[in-house]
Input
Amino acid sequence: MSQADNPHGSPNSSSGPEPSLSSDADDSVVQAKREPLLKLMATSEDWWAIYIGFVILAIGFCIVLLTAPADYTSLESLKGISPMSTYLGKPGGWEDSPLPALAKSWKGILGAFVVIGVLFTVATKLRGKDALGFIKGFPVVFALATFAYILAGQSVIKAYNLEYALWALLVGLIISNTLKTPAWMRPAILTEFFIKTGLVLLGAEVLMSRLMALGLPGIGVAWVVTPIVLISTYIFGQKVLKIPSRSLNMVISADMSVCGVSAAIATAASCRAKKEELSLAIGLSLSFTVVMMVVLPAVIQALDLPTAVGGAWLGGTIDATGAVAAAGAVLGDEALEVATTVKMIQNILIGVTAFLVAAYWVAYVEKNETSQKVGVGEIWYRFPKFVLGFIIASILFSLIHGQVEGGSLLTDAMIKDGTKTLRGWFFCLAFICIGLDTNFKELLPYFKGGKPMMLYVCGQSLNLILTLLMSYLMFGILFPTS
Amino acid sequence: MKRFLIVAACVAIVWGVVLPRLAKTNTVRERNAWLKEKQIDPAAMFYTELPLMDRVLAGR
Output
């Protein structure tokens, strides 16, 4: 069944394997024939995303370690020391013309192109896929991603939190719906591969050692309310709104309750949502974020809430991290600190969310849809392995960050100098690919009936109420700040 | 091709003319200066992309 025929259908319906974010046969959940583990480890995207992710992390950490001065004591003393800060970059912000920003960052853009191009060409070749085709198509896909970054870097666009994901999606959609995506670009349209690799890199940024940055109040707002809202919204979507696609329901619930685009990407990959579902969830999230970023601080001021309570409310409810900071700063420094720290703790929830959603999907959702009894072996077989890479990267770098002397500075330097930039490129490339692979007509059925919008509005309303109550309890009554 | 050229022209006008002019208005200038002073990247997707987090975490 094609996606156009059944836009709301589950990606893993009993009608047989259906493409999710990618159309790669290796990623079909319900496979007619079970592949041996060693073969999967040699050919599947999940495993190769882990290999590439860990190669980048290992090399990045070694470069920082080897180039660090002997007497480093702060992040400032490590800043700009490693060559990664020069040779891995993205187009910077601009106001009148993007050319000066490009002239400043061209070495970094070229470096990112070479690193990603080489790693993915080797991976494509070793996976037995069309490596030559990838080499032909990748420069154009990368050029489009660069263009999307340039669009997102304009100062007005940037100031209002319109992230690169939106522009990457639009650039891809414009090409595919006006010129038609040429066949020779197809081997480089590796949506899910880019997303999974980016997520493994993101794992290194999910540092558990930062979980207690705000103590118990932060945990209360970010790790108690958020899962309650996520689960309640998902159940509401299934039982009340009866959203036909479970994966769409889950992606919207997660991006609304956890932390916007990054949570949507992680959850969509974990539950193998369709590319249209991820696009819709991100569109909803970014639209509401812009409104909430402006309205919520005004509401907090009108209600005369204590600044810490207001900050925690912002951090727990506004989806995007940058928008949380912009809104928190309106209320003052204390609100800004509380808001961004609550959002950081919520960011860390991505790892747990991705893992639990993936486990729930293989153990329950697919079991119901295939009406098969799913044993432990089958769960392991179906489990999206890149999630393990994501979790392992998170645990490993959390340990280095928290337990190894000087590890926190080295980890921070590695992330800031290089892996964060590459992770951004992977996500940007993925959204370009989604756009290149999507027809506007395929998106339209998702808007019919307005159910996704209703789900978002109802879920966000619950989020606003519960987070306000918890913020008031934690920061206003139990642990008031002076 | 015609549709592509129309969309490309729209993008060129918006990003090449409209947005640069908007960026020069006092409201946007003041907002950008304020964001820069507070070390806020409003387009940050994850906390590691926020420049101010170093200061916030160091304070804690």
